Amino acid sequence: MLRNPIKHCKNCGAAVVYRVPDDGDTKDRAICPACHTVHYENPLNVVGTVPYWGDKVLLCKRNIEPRWGKWTLPAGFMELNETVAEGAARETLEESGAQFELEGFFSLLNVARVGQVHMFYRARLLSDTFNPGFETIEARLFAEDEIPWDEIAFRTVKETLERYFADRRAGYFSIHAIDIV
Amino acid sequence: MLRNPIKHCKNCGAAVVYRVPDDGDTKDRAICPACHTVHYENPLNVVGTVPYWGDKVLLCKRNIEPRWGKWTLPAGFMELNETVAEGAARETLEESGAQFELEGFFSLLNVARVGQVHMFYRARLLSDTFNPGFETIEARLFAEDEIPWDEIAFRTVKETLERYFADRRAGYFSIHAIDIV
């Protein structure tokens, strides 16, 4: 996701200027010359799950851009007034309509290039029937040797899936911190 | 941190209206009636470290609001173009001037009420002399029984310190996911 630059003050609508604030900050910020509001831009969290059913994981075929038609783990932007776990559960429900129980925190992936942090929990599916929302063309279970590796929508999803299956083979789940460069 | 509501479009400066977008979204967003930009508001990440020297941890006495004069672990808002670890290291350097080596991911704390996620790494101090920046009145090492528990600036810091000393006594460090309610 590329961000559009801030051009106007969100408080009063005046055109902003970019400069280092006078408060000891060291970075250029969008500053309003009229009402003096300083506008910060910060990373966004993308939160989701690895939903599993026996030795299979649930992937969703995207019905939205970017990466329409590619496969992803259920995930999306974290909202205000929710925890990482609540956001991960909400996105899983919205994108797959699955019934599940959230388990442990699993992966933390930095995508500094686009200012994002992706976080995934493991989720134990309680049923193998799904009811995906409008963002998903199809929700389907895949064993490791069935995963469409060349059709995975995002690097963070691919890296998370690889760790998930490796941990599963090893017999225990770790927490993984990964930098996507 | 309380957020000021978005009143004007950051793209064109027109006054926004709050409504649910027409794209399948379910939440009210600030929408520009002139250029149709949808403005999302998302949680902010606060990143920092638990810097330790033997059985002591480094705390910083805040020289800025909020909580001026209270003690904190070095931490601050994550910036664009950095990883969680890089942000945690940057804040530690800025607020304490310590020399250190970053170790494992330690705590993930949800403060949903204010739309924040706090994340701490452990950091092994390489020296017990510090050179704090303008945001810090004093940087000082504390053993567990010296911690000024009633003068800790933030709940997330108190919870992280409690887990850190408990894990240290247990002889191994886990990763902790905590909801601050």
Task: Give a quick summary of the entry.
With 181 residues, chain A is α+β, with helices and mostly antiparallel strands. Chain A has 2 helices and 11 strands, in the order E-E-E-E-E-E-E-H-E-E-E-H-E. In chain A, 16% of the residues lie in helices and 35% in strands.
Q: Runs of chain A with pLDDT <50, length 5+? A: none
Cα separation of the termini of chain A: 15 Å
Portion of residues in helices of chain A? 10-25%
Oligomeric state of the chains in view: homodimer
- Which class of secondary structure composition applies to the elements of chain A? alpha+beta
Number of helices of chain A: 2
Overall mean pLDDT score of chain A? 96
Q: Outline of chain A, from the CA principal axes?
A: elongated
- Strand composition percent of chain A: 35-45%
- Topology of chain A as a string of helices (H) and strands (E): EEEEEEEHEEEHE
Q: Say how many strands of chain A there are.
A: 11
Main beta-sheet annotation of chain A: 8 strands, mixed
Largest interface: A-B, 44 and 44 residues
C-alpha-based Rg of chain A, rounded:
19 Å
